[in-house]
Amino acid sequence: MDILAIAAVAFTLAGFVKGVVGFGFPIITLIILTLTIGLLDALAIVVIPTIVVNFWQASSGPYLADIVLAASLGRNDLLSMEHVRVSVSALVPSILGPDYWSPGPFEDR
Length: 109
Known about the structure:
Blueprint: H1 3-21, H2 25-37, H3 39-60, H4 64-73, H5 82-96
């Protein structure tokens, strides 16, 4: 099978899954393309479309400007929507890493 046909099938299937579930685009395309052309070539093909699809999904929401403004100013008081607070509070610990987290009430250091 031609590489363009395989890539078209991989991107179509992954786009369908991302549209239904909301994630999984790079996972599905990497699996299909790695089985046919190898990992390094598959990564080279998948990187740019993954960035484009993620940006497209982020920019389609109505709160992108609020998130960018709050993140650029470093102002938590601008994050008044609950789902934005939740997404930022989930993002910050993942950036800072597990050493930054304080122990919970039932955890020892």
